[in-house]
Amino acid sequence: MLARVSKPSSAVDFAQLLVVPQPPASIAAAEEALRKATSAREEGQQRHIEAGRRLANQPLGQPPQISQRDVDEIGATLQPLFDAEAKAKAYRDEQVQAFEQSIGPSLAEPLKQFRQAVGQALNDLEELLAQGAAFSAGARAARFDLSRIDKLPATCEHMRERLHLARSVFDRI
What we know:
Helix content is 75%, strand content 0%.
């Protein structure tokens, strides 16, 4: 069996190089403000719905507990809640966009290195699998049953086909 080859010491550690920084506290604050605005809007809508239900379910022949005017007044308070939620969402989106734009340039070079490393690894694996497939074909031509010793060379051609799928995805992005 093949032993796992250790990483060369000159290999780049992408786990440490490709790190998205923590979002700033302003995003968390904007998220919290949006959550509160959404909650306030939902509570306002619930009050309006409940008032409408109470109005629709008032028993006839009894003094009214709520009027259409009361329901309309509660409904009129909803627009500022919707406006506050939209404003909070827009502010949160601005903060997130500013953060994303600020980290893009800092990740450009590490991502370029990562792309090159993946491309090189695919090239190396294609070369290894081609050698294994050629060895397997040579063994078959010599009428030698290589599978009694190791099945890996016989699977190299199949792995190359699968690797071509991975290569086509890599080349498209």
